[in-house]
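Next up, a specimen:

>
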Amino acid sequence: MGELAEEPEAEDGSSLELALKRLERAVALLDGRIGAHGREDGEGGLFDFDRSQLAAELDASRARERVLEEAGEAVAEALGRAIVSVRQALEQAEEA
């Protein structure tokens, strides 16, 4: 399992993105091994359909990741505004 050695987490990469990259590498490695085995048996393209289905699912997951990141940013901004409002209200209460 040395081919799947863990990589250090990228500073700007999300853990989901890194997990997806590791999954892609693992699938490619597995596909290569099975493809080599299939060529020995006279078969080819054993995972062609599964691979295209996985690629579509990966694309959908990445799109969902972008949506979640945008929602997280919006929540963080709203929370920041709420914190400022609470601080202002506390300061006004202290002054009164």
